[in-house]
Design a protein that fits this description.
- By secondary structure, the chain is of the alpha/beta class.
- It folds into three domains: about 180 residues, FAD/NAD(P)-binding domain, CATH 3.50.50; about 80 residues, D-Amino Acid Oxidase, subunit A, domain 2 (D-Amino Acid Oxidase, Chain A, domain 2), CATH 3.30.9.10; about 60 residues, no CATH class.
- The strands form three sheets. Strands 1, 2, 8, 9, 10, 11, 17 and 18 form an eight-stranded mixed sheet that branches. Strands 6-5-13-14-15-12-16 form a seven-stranded mixed sheet, covered by helices on one side. A three-stranded antiparallel sheet has the order 3-7-4.
- A hairpin with a 2-residue loop joins strand 10 and strand 11.
- Helix 1 runs parallel beside helix 3, helix 1 runs parallel beside helix 6 and helix 6 packs antiparallel against helix 7.
- The model has no long low-confidence stretch (mean pLDDT about 90).
- Bound molecules: flavin-adenine dinucleotide.
Length: about 400
């Protein structure tokens, strides 16, 4: 009998396993793929705050980042930078593998190629049904953690509901001449409702990708052709991988003896789609909750419910404001986006934002609210009768 059975060996599952195993708990991790970290569905950009708080990435860091260029549909450019390192680009597969090795080093047991089909949550424990290598097996534990990422059906099967808004992304690795700055393209025709990126990683390689409400695959192929014609990448031909992100939290992220963390719980920034930091922050709360549960003979349902209360206190406001801003952005036309670039550049807002402590890689509500205050006098340009966030935050 295990203390905890963790489903999914991604960033959050490995972290939960590592921390619980370090505290002496018996942990089983079940991962459906044969290799941890593969396939990669991530650009690997992690804020400096995340690395400072979770110093687990060092071996996987490819580059430091302190600036990025944002491009409007008509090609206007805004450069954002700070003197200090703001983010790191990591080899995401190497990061997941290293974290899994740490967990194994602390005694966590990993079963790869093991897809969890079902979970039974009972009064005195959990039973997890696994299919792998043609066999079915049941594992028993005191509690389970669903860390199975985007699109997992396990929470729905348990009656925890489903994420009601999501977006699909597409990404490809390409060759480039030299590793410049990260480029972000804000253009509704390139990435409908979202944005596209070119992230130089290492050794003349870059990741080009986008999130889009419409046809991410076709959109990415068009972007690759356009970047090739502009001489930014060496070839428009590349293998495309797909992955999604939740834009809203799961309606319920706990049951007695079960917690849901990471993408499966919808703990992702709706502004950028970055999920590693928020997932790890919530995984930390999950570990603390389970530690309390294992320390008492009869853990109360209230204890498991406190997990959701605590993670919402930590990131709930960011998710709400970020989602509203995202919906607002989706209503803008390319002309509006160009107008916003103009306003930000011409009114000194750009300089003010660069100096403002509100400009943070991981926490966006401050900059969203500051930006909207500055845009308020021009709201007629966008057809807004009132500030769209007023009364909602
Ligand atoms: C194109 C793209 C780019 C992104 N770029 C970034 C970025 O630059 N920075 C950032 O912070 N975030 C980024 N993200 C988001 C980030 O990848 C996720 O937020 C993060 O991976 C979530 O971690 P997780 O542990 O919750 O889930 P995952 O990393 O998805 O791990 C879930 C694991 O569970 C396994 N699994 C699923 N179902 C089962 C099952 N039934 N049984 C057993 N195992 C199962 C999966 O195989 C997987 O290994 C990006 C996402 C996409 C799609």
């Amino acid at each position: 009998m295990y203390h905890a059975i963790v489903i999914g060996a991604g960033a959050t599952g490995n972290y939960v396993a590592y921390r619980l195993a370090s505290q002496g708990y018996k942990v089983l991790v079940l991962e459906e793929h044969e290799q941890v970290g593969e396939p990669v569905r991530c650009a690997g950009i992690i804020g400096a705050e995340c690395l400072n708080r979770f110093p687990l990435f060092e071996g996987a860091v490819l580059r430091e980042v302190n600036s990025a260029k944002l491009f409007s549909p008509s090609g206007r450019e805004l450069r954002v930078w700070k003197d200090s390192v703001q983010a790191y680009i990591v080899d995401r597969a190497a990061f997941d593998r290293a974290l899994a090795e740490r967990a194994q080093g602390q005694g966590a047991h990993y079963l790869l190629g093991s897809r969890v089909q079902d979970i039974a949550v009972l009064d005195d424990g959990v039973k997890v049904e696994v299919e792998g290598q043609g066999r079915e097996k049941i594992f028993e534990g005191e509690a389970a953690v669903i860390a199975s990422g985007f699109g997992s059906t396990l929470p729905l099967k348990l009656g925890l509901g489903r994420v009601d808004d999501l977006v699909v992304g597409a990404q490809a690795e390409v060759s480039i001449d030299d590793g410049g700055e990260i480029e972000v393209y804000l253009d509704q025709e390139v990435a409908s409702g979202f944005y596209a990126w070119l992230v130089p990683t290492c050794e003349n390689k870059a990741l080009v990708g986008l999130f889009s409400r419409q046809n991410p695959g076709d959109s990415l192929r068009n972007l690759l052709s356009s970047l090739f014609l502009r001489g930014k990448i060496a070839s428009p031909d590349a293998d495309i991988t797909y992955g999604g992100i939740p834009l809203r939290p799961l309606p319920q992220t706990y049951m007695k003896r079960l917690l849901v963390v990471g993408d499966a719980a919808g703990q992702v920034k709706p502004t950028t789609g970055g999920g590693i930091y928020y997932g790890l922050l919530c995984a930390e709360i999950a570990v603390d909750t389970l530690h309390q549960a294992f320390s008492t003979n009869k853990p109360s349902p209230k204890l498991f419910a406190s997990y959701e209360k605590r993670w919402k206190q930590r990131i709930g406001r960011e998710l709400r404001i970020g989602y509203l801003a995202r919906r607002l952005y989706e209503r803008l036309s390319n002309r509006h986006i160009d107008q916003i670039f103009d306003i930000v550049e011409s009114r000194g807002i750009h300089e003010a934002l660069l100096k403002s402590p509100a400009l943070s890689f991981d926490w966006h509500s401050g900059v969203i609210l500051t930006g909207l205050r500055h845009l308020d006098p021009w709201r007629h340009l966008f057809g807004w009768r009132k500030n769209p966030l007023r009364g909602k935050v």
